[in-house]
Amino acid sequence: MCAGALSKDGAIASRARSWWPEGGNQGDVLASAVLTLLIIAGISSYLVRRKKTGHARTALPPGPTGLPLLGSLPFLGPDLHRSFAELAKAYGPVMSIRLGTKLCLVVSSPAAAKEVLKDLDAIFANRDVPASAKVINYGGRGIGWNGSLASWRVLRKMTVRELLNTSTVNAFYSLRRSEVRRMVREVHRMCGTPVQVWAKTSLTSLDVITNMMWGSTVQGEERSQVGKEFSEVVTEINDLLGVPNVSDLIPALARFDLQGVERRMKRLHVLCDKILSKIIDMRVRDAGNGGGEGGEEKKGGGNRGKDFLQVMLDAVESTAEAPLTVDNLKAIMMASRIDRATHRTGELAAEISSLWAVGQHLSKLGSPMGRAIFGQKWAYWAILHRC
């Protein structure tokens, strides 16, 4: 096998000599030499890798063969899900496919998805971290991509118990209502001028999440400024996370960062880290002075004495099950801002759109009947209807 591979490489090298420049300058000779070596090295590595994994290929699900280095990327359309659906018709609901040099498993049926994402989640949860996500996630110290199982369990338990449970959501109901009302009043004051609804809803979502995360640590004009800065950075981060990155598909090229995705994400990470570090330092200083633990949750109707930031800071100092660091806390705060702001912003934008859509029907009803049928939506639409 090795002799055959060497003979093939030798044939390629001999053919490569036919286009070697005889009388060119030194730069042309050097470029040709580098190109020849790269071609030989690429083909040799492909043959070696194929020899090592050839016996394991039969254990993989069926799938397209693909090209060396590129895999099946040249044959996929812009709508990736449609391309996978077409391939699933030929290879079945579970197939293996190479995207670049990455071997991927594609499931395209409810039963297969349930088995992979639920029944065998412990096996398939160890997924590769995208280069941009690894930067913004403090090297995989959050929940989404955490290499330490013990740390992941502690973070998940604390997040579900302190931030995502029903009592916490209910405790902040009045806060969410007041923030939405404030946004509606701002939109009303801008009657007759163009309104960027997405920007308004995004800022409102971030304000609500900010209060749930670190309460009243930042107040007044400083709070508005921090929210605005964070909103702008989070928007850029979301856009950058959706950019296809060749470094994720061909890890050998990751060190070169050909698209500059990692470089831009590091710049955004520095901006976010400054804001988070400032907030944490303020909370630690306030806690040392005997305050800063109440937060806005009391205003939201809750009876809890600590917000999520204070709970996590206490865990950093006292958790014995798995060592937690401030970077774990920052990664959780960052992920919560990015994920929940994106989802909640879409919900608020859809809510405002629905208010306008039913406007003609509401206008035909009297105030008592409209309030009885549409509840709180009547109050919001009544303000918008004055525009």
SSE order and pairing:
Blueprint lengths: L1 H15 L9 H32 L22 H12 L2 E6 L2 E6 L2 H10 L1 H4 L6 H6 L12 H14 L3 H6 L1 H17 L7 H18 L5 H22 L4 H4 L11 H28 L19 H11 L7 H32 L1 H5 L3 H8 L1 H9 L3
Antiparallel strand pairs: 1-2
Helix pairs in contact: 1-2, 9-10, 10-11, 10-15, 11-13, 17-18
GO molecular function: heme binding; iron ion binding; monooxygenase activity; oxidoreductase activity, acting on paired donors, with incorporation or reduction of molecular oxygen
Keywords: Membrane, Transmembrane, Transmembrane helix
Pfam families: p450
Any overview of this molecule?
The chain folds into three domains: 1-59; 61-125, no CATH class; 149-384, no CATH class. The model is unreliable at 1-21, 292-304, 341-345, 359-375 and 381-387 (pLDDT under 50). The protein has helices at 2-16, 26-57, 80-91, 110-119, 121-124, 131-136, 149-162, 166-171, 173-189, 197-214, 220-241, 246-249, 261-288, 308-318, 326-357, 359-363, 367-374, 376-384; strands spanning 94-99, 102-107. A hairpin with a 2-residue loop joins strand 1 and strand 2. By secondary structure, it is mainly alpha-helical. Helix 1 (2-16) runs antiparallel to helix 2 (26-57), helix 10 (197-214) crosses helix 15 and helix 11 runs antiparallel to helix 13.
Strand order of the largest sheet: 1-2
Low-confidence stretches: 1-21, 292-304, 341-345, 359-375, 381-387
Helicity, in percent? 55-70%
Radius of gyration: 28 Å
Largest sheet: 2 strands, antiparallel
Total helices: the number is 18
- The overall pLDDT, averaged over residues, is 74
Q: How are helices and strands ordered from N to C? A: HHHEEHHHHHHHHHHHHHHH
Determine the structural class based on helices, strands and strand pairing: mainly alpha
Number of domains: 3
- What's the end-to-end separation, in Å? 79 Å
The beta-strand count equals: 2
Q: Describe the global form.
A: globular
Strand content: under 5%
